Amino acid sequence: MGGRRAFHDLSAGETAAPDLSGECGGGKTPLQISRRKDQAGSLGTEEKTSRTRDIHSNALTPGLTPGVLCQFLMEVDRMTRVDNSAKSRDIAHCIHPYTNLKIHLEKGPLIIAEGKGIYVYDEEGKEYIEGLAGLWCTCLGFGEDELIEAAVRQMRKLPYYHTFAHKATNPSIDLAEKLKEIAPVPVSKVFFANSGSEANDSLVKLVWYYNNALGRPQKKKIISRWKGYHGVTVATGSLTGLPSNHQDFDLPIANILHTDCPHYYRFAEEDESEEEFAARIARNLEKLIQDEGPDTVAAFIAEPVMGAGGVIVPPKTYFQKVQEVLRRHQVLMLADEVICGFGRTGNMFGCETFGIKPDAITVAKAMSSAYLPISAVLLSEDIFEAMVKESEKIGVFGHGFTYSGHPVPAAVAVRTIQLIQQRNLVDHVRQVAPRFHERLKAFADHPLVGEVRGVGLIGAAELVADKAAKRPFHPTQAVGAYCSGRAEVHGLIVRAMVDSVAFCPPLIITESEIDEMFNRFAKALDETEMWVTENGLRNVS
């Protein structure tokens, strides 16, 4: 018994383990089975190999039956297969953005293996509606053959080339032309990068370059907004108005300022109308510019709808009033269309939806339906002329990336925009958006929901502890995260930004699929309400 317990935990009163040798390899001895497993590579680490050798050395231990040893080897094999799983390998090797890294070491990832249409499937085959289009980006859904074929064709023809030193490729030229064709304002030139962060980071540098060219070396400050999101580089992480993007990264850097978040539900004063709220925060913006000195403020950057800050739709007349302030002080208007561009708000660009007339625009995400990474900066003639002047003085335009205008992502982006146009996807968004908002607004009466908001096919439900007082839950309670977790159980992937749960499905979604998406969310929301009530979370201040 003592010898056996080294390998098998016998319960009280158990006298012997069953002989499983017949089930463990067709009559082969445990040693033969173990060697077969080693040869198959199932014991992959040095530690497990050592453990197996220990088992081999004890194969002749008195009292150790072949069945007991075989049962142990089966358990070792099971543990090894778990350790070599994608989940375990991810924990061992990968760092995940926007993830609690400590929790991830214990929880691990959800492994997504396949996608088709608005659906993705995990490694076990479970179906999920991708309610956020990945990260606000997969506008044509998953498995679009036209985009796959565009990439393959270009890969075969010219898999890579650069745009440095007067070089070009046809796909980057085609894409620049296409972007100028559909832009909401006249555009002179297009600069290519690889992500929204890179595009906005490039735009910061170009604004500084522009003002140096104009002989205004002090006019360098750029104003963003609290809760705005513009990326994670040193410069764009500074523009982003979220505390977690600044804390312990030593951000924001100099010359980056922040003004009011235009969230009417959260920040309007009592009895203040949307127009009055917009006027007040526009006055605050003007005061900030005046206090800093208009000769030092270069630009104001804004998303038409604030995405990662919680899907914040601007109040009525907001951008009209803001642009009046900017014009008075010769401050550039920069539009971050990384989320809103290419149909999301019911127009090709969010600028059209909200009457924005920008001097420069950044785009990414849906431009290629996120099948390959690519982004762009669309520039006015005034900015480009200044760039030409400055590069002539210096001798070179000293900015750009190895993959700027990469021909394969560019080819995919061209085909994406063509499909958006050919399939009248913007009209489709307008047709299904009423159903999207009807279902979303129905949650306003739920005891857990303080506000629902959105436009086009982007929206959010904000969860609160007290509806009447608009009192939020304490962030450490992670109510939004719990709700998104329950949604996952019911086959829906959404994103919780603190306690605002966002929806941004692929633009190809149908009305029946919208219903199914919100049906799944309703189950998660009811379960979250039950969890909140059972744990007394509304009573925690």
Notes on the protein architecture:
By secondary structure, this protein is α/β, with parallel strands linked by helices. The chain contains 21 helices and 15 strands. It has helices spanning 2-5, 30-40, 46-57, 66-83, 86-93, 101-107, 133-136, 145-157, 170-182, 196-213, 234-239, 243-246, 264-267, 274-292, 318-328, 350-354, 381-394, 407-422, 425-442, 479-489, 511-534; strands spanning 112-116, 119-122, 127-130, 189-193, 221-225, 256-259, 297-302, 332-336, 360-363, 375-379, 449-455, 458-463, 492-493, 495-497, 500-503. It has a seven-stranded mixed sheet, sandwiched between helices. The protein has a four-stranded mixed sheet with strand order 1-2-3-13. The chain has a four-stranded antiparallel sheet with strand order 11-12-15-14, with helices on one face. β11 and β12 form a beta hairpin. α8 packs antiparallel against α18 and α14 packs parallel to α15 (318-328). The N and C termini lie far apart (57 Å). 43% of the residues are buried.
